[in-house]
Amino acid sequence: xxxxxxxxxxxxxxxxxxxxxxxxxxxxxxxxxxxxxxxxxxxxxxxxxxxxxxxxxxxxxxxxxxxxxxxxxxxxxxxxxxxxxxxxxxxxxxxxxxxxxxxxxxxxxxxxxxxxxxxxxxxxxxxxxxxxxxxxxxxxxxxxxxxxxxxxxxxxxxxxxxxxxxxxxxxxxxxxxxxxxxxxxxxxxxxxxxxxxxxxxxxxxxxxxxxxxxxxxxxxxxxxxxxxxxxxxxxxxxxxxxxxxxxxxxxxxxx
Length: 255
Hints:
Layout: H1 3-17, H2 21-28, E1 29-35, H3 43-57, E2 61-71, E3 74-83, E4 88-98, E5 104-113, H4 137-153, H5 160-163, E6 164-170, H6 178-186, E7 193-203, E8 206-215, E9 218-229, E10 232-242
């Protein structure tokens, strides 16, 4: 585990789950901490203004990092949060940019309610958890990039079989099982249009994209996490958040 990934785990598990927000944000962030979680202000004080009250009102915090990886200065993690004995359950996907010493400089996220029932029947946070170190990172990223460009952005839905396995394991709550379920969702009003790919990175067989789609009159920030095997996408998780109006932002926004 590189220093950046280690610091991300620490700020999550020591600072948020462990309730030591002040100590963690001071120890693991760098000369700046630019924030894109729109309810949180920039810098150390912005972080504390949100998370110290969060810790106080949620004394019982079961927070588990389910998957995480790094690619140079970029770090990804996804977590499940159960607060106050399950009174609230959340799934987060987070992207961090770190400096040469692994200190966190910038953060993006989406936060969605945990859904116990999914269209595919697969658990929203279930599935593979460990990166395959033998997998070819460059090949995995190239496959997902072309899928995102050709199928998602250019709407070449007839090409989906070139990129996606027929028995795709689907964890996104609103998408049905297999390649067929994904194909049906992609042409639906619910999916809308994938308008912007903001970032893509990965490690081994895992690749994450962060971007924006527009559906039913709403702009949506969305993380898609893919697992690649045998030259195709074989597993998919999605976490998304409607982008609130700019007057509600505590910083410069989701991107």
